[in-house]
Write a structure and sequence with these properties.
With 269 residues, the protein is an alpha+beta fold. The protein has helices at residues 29-41, 74-83, 139-146, 197-209, 217-224, and strands spanning 4-12, 47-49, 58-68, 89-96, 109-118, 131-133, 151-154, 169-180, 183-190, 239-245. The protein folds into two domains: 4-106, Pseudouridine synthase I, catalytic domain, N-terminal subdomain (Alpha-Beta Plaits); 109-244, 2-Layer Sandwich (Alpha-Beta Plaits).
Length: 269
């Protein structure tokens, strides 16, 4: 039988998941997605994602591919997949893969968004969708401090102590911090991310925005290369995988934020 590779865009609320990756006796996004697609295919389906997310982390657009022998039209995959998914996961688009497409290895860049609710009172409605910080944050100082992180660096000070990546080197393409009323938002893009890298960056920037550290602290942490001297790991609640950037010939629609990518982004991959 001939195999066909399909590509999906998936959004999910990570609040009640143990993360993306399949785990024994734990609820995972991968497991519920494979279960739903297996029902449509009528044979076992294994999915590959662009980037694994941790417990409690959400996705505005995770990109996934899988191989099937079953013949279904794209509408049937979309409708059937969603009808078998729980309410906190949805397939938002689907298409046939081009050439050697791989959700993870074909990606040039990833985009994450971290949302901080910056007001004195916690939110009843957004309690699992944002990180709450009660005291005022200086988002301009946070943005200034974040600019030290742009470029190719050793991010040892910003990786989890148990991170299994062989290299701490990553290329940061852009990082913007801005305010939308009561929310302070961090938009960040790199070729790839280390374990807890975005949450550790957010923790450092929150300390800077609170006035506990200077805007030079990000540069100091890059230089010292020690996670022990870094800030807290910010909670998972406010973290979203926002989108994934692929070379044009794969035909994957790009999030508009990727217009900020530098022209030389490909040389870091």
């Amino acid at each position: 039988m001939n195999k066909m590779r399909l590509v999906l865009g998936v959004e999910y609320d990570g609040s009640n998941f143990s993360g993306w990756q399949w785990q024994i006796n734990q609820r995972s996004v991968q497991a519920v997605l494979e279960h739903a697609l297996t029902k449509v295919a009528n044979h076992p389906v294994t999915v590959q994602c662009a980037g694994r997310t941790d417990t409690g982390v959400h996705a505005l657009e995770q990109v996934v591919h899988f191989d099937v022998t079953a013949e279904r039209d794209l509408h049937a995959w979309m409708r059937g997949g969603n009808s078998n998914l729980p309410d906190d996961v949805r397939i938002t688009w689907i298409k046939e893969a081009v050439d050697d497409f791989h959700a993870r290895y074909s990606a040039i860049a990833r985009f994450y968004r971290y949302i901080i609710l910056n007001r004195p009172i916690k939110s009843a409605l957004l309690r699992n969708q944002v990180t709450w910080h009660h005291s005022p944050l200086n988002e301009q100082a946070m943005h200034q401090a974040a600019q030290h992180l742009i470029g190719k660096h050793d991010f040892t000070s910003f990786r989890a102590q148990g991170c299994q990546s062989k290299s701490p080197s990553r290329a940061m393409y852009f990082i913007d911090v801005y305010r939308q009323k009561e929310k302070v938002i961090i938009d960040i893009s790199a070729n790839a991310f280390l374990h807890h890298m975005v949450r550790n960056i957010a923790g450092v920037l929150i300390d800077i925005g609170s006035g506990k550290q200077s805007v030079e602290w990000t540069q100091e942490l890059l230089d010292v290369k020690s996670r022990k001297l870094g800030g807290i790991t910010a909670p998972a609640d406010g973290l979203y995988l926002g989108g994934v950037y692929y070379p044009d010939h794969y035909g994957i629609t790009k999030h508009p934020i990727f217009n900020k990518l530098p022209a030389n982004a490909r040389r870091y991959t």
